């Protein structure tokens, strides 16, 4: 498997990336942005989607030599550093190793040392029991030098948290490691190409026979030792050739068509376009390529709309003298398939046609962008939503293929203008999603999303698109970045609470992200409390979650830095908010203390520390405890006991009596968490 085998899956049925570079899969129909809203109950979480990505890879994975040794190191030492030549399967092996631990470890988390000033020394990067991947396969020398000195610190932090760490070493020259880490290095060796191809074909449901292993055309291809991404791509082409097979075709025919599709079809397309001298013919060719797989009526309407967009003069011939659509499609080597949908005769010919028009007719690019935006809005019979989605993706494909992600960002901005219809917004989200999943340009576009999110004059249309892509795309592999962007969007939300709810939904499913958000809020609140930040703090500081370790080693409340951030946040809430606002939340803390066992004293300590800077708040806090005694869990007696204990801590804070001994945290013997968060 290729070092660059980064799966880009948005669900168990989504497009799949099995190599470096771009992925544009338009052969499956998915409605990522038509499902339930980000805050809807029962929606699939980014964590579950990320696990599905790993599951997809695991099912198609062919183990390289050396994997067993890596597995032993990860089990015994909680750390392994994978080395090997490009194409040996290091990155795929790293992901599979971490996937195998899913039942005994926490969530999968990919570290990004080269984005947003992240330091690998920061303890906040690691959650209890995390499965950590640090992929340096594409790191340059400068990045490697900077990361190498932090690896020992990262490993110590991972060990303290009970996490498992897999590092994929860079492919360049010397990879000198710190002496204490060299013992965890494992060399992996590229698996057999034929085994990889057959594994993919089997998982794609392609029937195999005895001739498969000896087919000469396949043997010639595999002997060239192509990158693993090309082998995976060939398997997908074989599957697609099988799906579109003519009567009497077999495996050899599918392979022949698939291998032909891998060849450069550019010269063939250039010759075809040159032979189509008239505007309507070329418009139909481009429309068929952009709407490949759509109904003939939709392709025809698209061609007519494109002619209007470029101000092509209308024909003065009578309608009955026009050639029929079937004949016109035949002129461009296309026609309806068995399902009545327009397809070219050659596999992947539509991709080559789109590339030709984009590369060789640059004056057409701007009208093409406008045409796509208008076309997705049209109410055309038999124009399915998946056709509109693929149309937007295919336009984004051209910007990404030619290295212009900024152009993609520009038309996303235009498509989300204040008067944009819902279909246009969805198209913008689909296009932006393509860019965010692109291995080369995803970083640039995540940065663009960050800039947009911080814009105080952000339009509602673009804001709604950003909430979607943060929740459904960025959060899958880069959850910390999704939290930061959603936080900025929530602060600037003028209508509704979509960004706020999406943010709270993310931290609800991940303790590490909740800790991350609490730290951000603790830093922001004292400097100028925004209403949104106050509300987010009160929601994120849920005492029941803070005292529940779940599958973690310890509860968040047991961490001293977390208690400090909670006290900071509560101090601002008590000082800035009216009592009617904070009292129900304080009551919830006090009631949780009634049933929190060993954590009751820690909950009370946070509230007392928050009220201490202003002594007059002690009376209000005590009165709140008294008023909630009757409704306390465990009955009035338990409520009175918690109130008495609160009074003891208040008296100690005022110097009226000796301080009671600090509560012993259930895991006090563990080393306490120290550090800050980005």
From TrEMBL:
Source organism superkingdom: Bacteria
Annotated region described as Disordered, given as residue ranges: 1-29, 650-678
Positions with biased composition (Polar residues): 1-21
Entry-linked InterPro entries: P-loop_NTPase (IPR027417)
SUPFAM superfamilies given in the database record: P-loop containing nucleoside triphosphate hydrolases
Source organism of this protein record: Streptomyces thermolineatus
Protein name per UniProt: ATP-binding protein
